[in-house]
């Protein structure tokens, strides 16, 4: 490798690692905010948070790479241009495509690696991430006893603590409703004071009560006139042990989540897509045979009965015949109206079923093409960022960040529109998913052409001179 190639690669490596870390952090933070309400207050521990962040960071990597490559390319070649290093290299007879070649080879290798990463690693990370997120959602919130309020988090019990002392263990004025044996408040416990702590590796909660009474309803909450409706038991000290198994984070089998499209590679997605397409085509072929029994028709020349209705050979001539056939005609009209309503209802449900199958097939096919388009977008972003940095000749995090965000928003909006239209069947899935790259590719080629010819298209002096020429032409 030549010294020039090493110089350019070293200049690119630092900004790329920095920008990738920053973009990954921003996207991960934005993504985790959606689930913040479901994570806080459940006493999960740092290991669970670290595991969830690790899996979601893998999920965000294919989205972060194009933006990181765009921003780092702008910073690298903008800095080289700002320090007149690009000018010196070009003066020595090296063309711009040759200057871009080492980074271009790296970006192509990165795109290929990103494709395999997106196809094999990301689905497994999604499976682990979303199965863990499901278990977190099912986990009960951590116990939080508030003074003067009932706590119902322990199964079968309602506990009210009027005062909690500063040591975090001692309690005063305690009331407990025991519903564990059924009935309506069959057991009520009142205590003057107590202590609350956990034992056996925090698997059990011990509530130790002092100086209190236990009231037991002998009639199980019924309204009976009995002198022994309540039994009172006085105690100096007693203990109640609660199992905290329901507060533990249970892990569900990951196989139960494997049918989701985000947990499959291209081979699995293709198999599901083909199956859904065949099911949709089969439903369309079966529509006509299934709707035929709803229709009735008459053969006036035979006088036969069709579908239980009498048929006449000739039309009625006399008034008497018309009156005689009037009830039959009313029955025929009523039957026809009922049949029409049945056909409308059947057709509507059939259409909804076919539309659902088509939309599901489009969703799975979208995931197939997403793995290709996200990888190809890395090369598109380099093709835009590298020549654009050579044109603007500005390094650092100022102008490159603004331009990168602008192009990333354009790519994101075009991608969302194409995906939505493809999902609804307005355009083909291939066109919808490749549309953003197809639009941005000519822009990158245009910037490369301008940079190769030392264009001043994006410089302030160019626009100032252009405005001066326009004013002179008007004069």
Describe this structure in words.
By secondary structure, the protein is α+β, with helices and mostly antiparallel strands. The chain is built from eleven helices and six strands. The protein has helices at residues 3-33, 36-39, 46-82, 85-91, 96-138, 266-285, 287-291, 319-392, 399-423, 429-452, 460-474; strands at residues 150-151, 157-164, 170-178, 187-199, 204-217, 230-243. Strands 1-2-3-4-5-6 form a six-stranded antiparallel β-sheet, with no helix packed on it. A hairpin with a 4-residue loop joins strand 4 and strand 5 (204-217). Helix 8 runs antiparallel to helix 9 (399-423). The longest helix is centred in the C-terminal third of the chain and has 74 residues, at 319-392. It is flat, with a radius of gyration of 37 Å. The two termini are 57 Å apart. Mean pLDDT is 80; it is low at 298-316.
Taken from the alpha-carbon principal axes, the silhouette is flat
Helix content: 55-70%
In N-to-C order, the SSE pattern is HHHHHEEEEEEHHHHHH
Give unreliable regions as ranges: 298-316
Total beta strands: 6
Structural class: alpha+beta
Number of helices: 11
Largest sheet, if any? Answer: 6 strands, antiparallel
Alpha-carbon distance between the two ends: 57 Å
Describe the structure concisely for a colleague.
The chain has 475 residues and is α+β, with helices and mostly antiparallel strands. It has helices at residues 3-33, 36-39, 46-82, 85-91, 96-138, 266-285, 287-291, 319-392, 399-423, 429-452, 460-474, and strands at residues 150-151, 157-164, 170-178, 187-199, 204-217, 230-243.
């Amino acid at each position: 490798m030549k010294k020039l190639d090493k110089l350019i690669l070293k200049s690119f490596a630092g900004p790329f690692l920095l920008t990738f870390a920053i973009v990954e952090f921003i996207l991960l933070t934005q993504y985790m905010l959606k689930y913040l309400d479901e994570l806080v207050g459940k006493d999960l521990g740092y290991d669970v948070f670290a595991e969830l962040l690790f899996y979601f960071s893998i999920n965000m990597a294919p989205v972060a790479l194009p933006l990181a490559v765009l921003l780092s390319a702008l910073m690298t070649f903008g800095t080289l241009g700002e320090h007149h290093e690009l000018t010196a290299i070009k003066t020595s007879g090296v063309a711009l495509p040759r200057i871009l070649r080492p980074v271009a080879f790296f970006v192509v290798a990165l795109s290929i690696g990103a494709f395999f990463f997106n196809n094999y690693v990301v689905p497994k990370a999604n499976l682990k991430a979303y199965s863990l997120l499901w278990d977190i959602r099912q986990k009960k919130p951590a116990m939080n006893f508030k003074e003067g309020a009932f706590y119902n988090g322990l199964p079968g019990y309602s506990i009210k603590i009027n005062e909690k002392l500063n040591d975090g263990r001692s309690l005063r004025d305690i009331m407990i409703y025991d519903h564990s044996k059924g009935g309506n408040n069959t057991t009520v416990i009142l205590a003057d004071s107590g202590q609350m702590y956990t034992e056996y590796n925090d698997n059990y909660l011990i509530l130790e009560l002092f100086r209190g009474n236990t009231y037991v309803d002998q009639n199980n909450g019924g309204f009976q006139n009995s002198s022994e409706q309540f039994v009172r038991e006085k105690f100096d000290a007693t203990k109640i042990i609660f199992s905290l198994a329901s507060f533990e984070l249970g892990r569900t089998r990951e196989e139960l989540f494997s049918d989701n499209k985000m947990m499959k590679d291209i081979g699995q997605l293709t198999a599901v897509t083909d199956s859904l397409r065949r099911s949709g085509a089969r439903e369309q072929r079966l529509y006509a045979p299934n709707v035929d029994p709803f229709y009735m028709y008459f053969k006036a020349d035979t006088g036969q009965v069709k579908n239980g209705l009498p048929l006449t050979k000739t039309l009625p001539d006399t008034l008497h015949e018309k009156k005689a056939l009037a009830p039959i005609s009313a029955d025929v009209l009523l039957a026809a109206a009922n049949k029409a309503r049945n056909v409308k209802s059947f057709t509507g449900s059939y259409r909804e079923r076919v539309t659902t199958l088509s939309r599901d097939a489009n969703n799975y096919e979208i995931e197939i093409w997403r793995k290709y388009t996200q990888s190809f977008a890395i090369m598109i972003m380099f093709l835009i960022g590298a020549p654009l940095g050579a044109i603007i000749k500005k390094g650092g995090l100022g102008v490159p960040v603004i331009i990168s965000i602008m192009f990333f928003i354009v790519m994101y909006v075009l991608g969302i529109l194409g995906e939505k239209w493809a999902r609804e069947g307005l355009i083909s899935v291939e066109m919808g998913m490749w549309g953003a790259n197809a639009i941005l590719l000519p822009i990158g080629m245009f910037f490369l052409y301008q940079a190769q010819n030392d264009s001043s298209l994006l410089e302030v002096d160019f626009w100032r001179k252009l405005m001066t020429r326009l004013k002179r032409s008007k004069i």
